[in-house]
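Hi L., both proteins are below.
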Amino acid sequence: MALVILDRDGVINEESDDFIRSVDEWVPIPGSVAAIADLSRAGFRVAIATNQSGLGRGLFSADDLQAIHTRLRQMVEERGGSIAGIFFCAHTPDEGCSCRKPATGLLRAIEEALGESASGAAFIGDSLRDLQAARAFGCKAMLVRTGRGRATLAALQSGEARFEAWEALPVFDDLAAAASSILRNR
C-alpha cells in the first residue's frame, strides 16, 4: 500500500502564528479533509508528521492536541477515509531533538509504527523544513501554497531560501489539488 505523508498546520488546517491551541481554533482548509478521505479510499495510507512545539512551550495540553487530532480523524472517517497515524514533535526549536522537522525522526517513527518504508512516499508540506525533511529521507517533496506555502515559494524563487533543484518541485494550490495529482498519476 502506498504511503502519503502530510504536514498538518498550513496543509490540512489554517495556519496561525499564535499556534492552534484548541479544537475550537482548529479550522480545516476547504477541501483538505475530503482530500485525505479520497486518498485513503483509493488505497493510500495517510500519515501526518507535524511539529507541535506549542505543547512543549506549555501553550496547550496533550489533551488539547489529542482533541484536535480526534476531530480530524472523525471528519475523515465521516467521509469514508482513515488516517494511518498522526506523529508529532512537541520539542521547541532550541531543544535540538531528532524529531523536529527538518530532522527526520518523525519519518522514522512513521516507518516503525506502520511497518513500511517512507522512502519514495509523497510528502506534502507548506514550509522549507517540510521539504528538507522529505528530501533528507528520500520522500517525494510536494509544496502547497496554503499556510506558509506562498512565502516558502517566494523565498525559493528569490534565493532567500535554498533547496536544490526547487524549480522541479511540484507546487499545488492546496492539499485537494495535490491529492488529485497523486490520484491521477498513480
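That was the first. Here is the second:
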Amino acid sequence: MLNSTCEQQEGSLQLHAEKKALAMLLSHGEDELSVSINFNACVDCHEFFKISSQMLGRRIQLHQPQMTHTFIDGNCSCNDRWSWEARIAPAMRTTATALQLQ
C-alpha cells in the first residue's frame, strides 16, 4: 500500500467488506443495521460507520471478534478508544520485538 497512489489507496478503502455489508442492508431496506465481521475494522471503516450513523440518523452496530461498536449520531460506544489502540498496538509490538532481539 505504501507504494500505491492516493487514488489506488482510496479505491482499496471503498472495497472493504463491512462497507459493502452496510450498503446491502440499506439497499434491502433493513430496519436493523447490524454488521458482523471476523476481523477488526480499520480506522477508515470506523470513521465511515460514525459518519453514516450521523447522516442516516440511525443506529448502526459493528460486531468484531472481541468488541461490538454501536454508532449513534456520529459517535461510537468505544469513544474512539479502539481507533487509538489500533494505531498504537502495531508500534508497541514492533518495539517489544526490538527489545527482545537485544
